[in-house]
Amino acid sequence: MRQKGLKIGAVLASPSGDLAAVAGRSVRRTVKVLSLVTRQAGRYRLTLTAVAAPGSAGGYEAAIEELRPATPSDPLRVEALRKLAEGLNARQTALPNADDQALAKLEEARRLSHEAGDFEGETDARIESRRIEIDGQDQKAAAAAVPDLMEIQAASQRQGYPRGAAAAWNNLASAQFILGQVDQAFSSSLRALELWRRLGDLSAEGDTASDLGYLCKSKEPANYEEGRRWAEKAIALESAAGDLAGEVHALNSLATIQKARWNLAEAEQTYRAALEKSLQVGDHSLEVEIMSSLATVYHGRGELQNALDLYVDAIGRGGAADWQGRNYVNLGSLYVELGKLEDARASYARALSLLPEDDPYRINALINSGS
Predict the structure, then answer these.
(1) Torsion angle (degrees, nearest 10) of CA 282, 283, 286, 291
(2) What are φ and ψ of residue 10, in 5° steps?
């Protein structure tokens, strides 16, 4: 099923009305695959629903087909796909142990895929596990991921699985960036971009172009003009792919570059365009990210009340602990500037509960000083 940028749920029901499959493997943000081994012939019913969105934007394409007669290893493959989907879904809950639950499910998916002789499934599970570990922004995890991701991309190339190789290069770039290896990350992203281009995956190419734009901003010295070109290319690619969520990410990348150049009026306009589209997607994590970034623009312009209102709104929408923690830190800083020290300490304390190991914020010192 190819979805045009909206989060959707999918249910496949058997001829007797029993549930045959739910959710499924996300090959990419815009594609879900439901797999089923069955001996029951007849009419199957596929139901698609928009999740937390009106579902009016874009469109859907769905196809059900019999691929081939089942083999003894197929039940293992399908169970592996279920575990992979459960792992990815577990991470979206934003619960304190969500990542641990996701990693456990992904390890089950990897093991089952290995038993079934499914190299692609095993590779997907390994990449998603590394993605979760890298997303924690921990240098030790990033350093451990680098040799594994190099091995994954090399094996994927040998086995003729270019999607796996491209995804491995993308994640390798993320790990290298965390380690401060910006030039290497840029090179890895270019390798991923070329593979996605050969595959004709406009959305993945757009995602990678967004990454390249951000990396240009992070270079020493920063190359904002090149970053802007990459971000604008990403917007065009995501639009051509019909990927609304991808457009949001690309707009966010462009706004980040504009903000870094201190073009705050342009950044505000771009963030607002991204926020409007994110509300159509129905992904609260996207909304929180954009609102938080827009709040920093207002903060930079000295519009403290506007910034405070946005941080409070973003916090009220929930989301991942790391984003919430950062928002509470920023909210605390705003309260300090407004002279509300007790509110500042309360915000810093909440941040500490969400980011107990986040030393860069010096949250304990902030609580004690109220500044």
Answers:
(1) 50
(2) -135, 140
